[in-house]
Amino acid sequence: MKNSLVQEKNQRVVTFLNRQEVDFLDKMGKDALFSTGCKLSRAKLIAWLVDFMKALNINGQGIKSERDFDNRIKGVLGKT
């Protein structure tokens, strides 16, 4: 039986972030660059955050607001 290679196709997602959010992502990228020599893009950081949420089995059920979302994440992490 042949092993088939499944290629993952990246999709483009447009986000609307405020200045503080963009600055935060840029700072994370710069911190990584200066501490490890590896450059991290905003897109890669966002993708990793999505993967992390998936690993925590966080879904959208019952979430109506940012506060609901924040509480869900804190609950999963044990920080109520």
Based on CA atoms alone, the radius of gyration comes out at 16 Å
Arithmetic mean of pLDDT: 91
Largest sheet: none
Number of helices: 3
Name the structural class: mainly alpha
Q: What is the number of E strands?
A: 0
Distance between the termini: 50 Å
Coarse morphology: globular
Low-confidence stretches: none
* Count of distinct structural domains: 1
Percentage of residues in DSSP E strands = under 5%
Helix content: 55-70%
- Helices and strands, in order, run as HHH
Tell me about this structure:
- The chain is mostly helical.
- The chain has one domain (19-77).
- The protein is 55% helix and 0% strand.
Helices and strands, with pairings:
Blueprint: H1 19-36, H2 42-55, H3 66-77
List descriptors.
single chain, about 80 residues, mainly alpha
Question: Summarize this, please?
Answer:
By secondary structure, the protein is mainly α. Helices cover 55% and strands 0% of the residues.
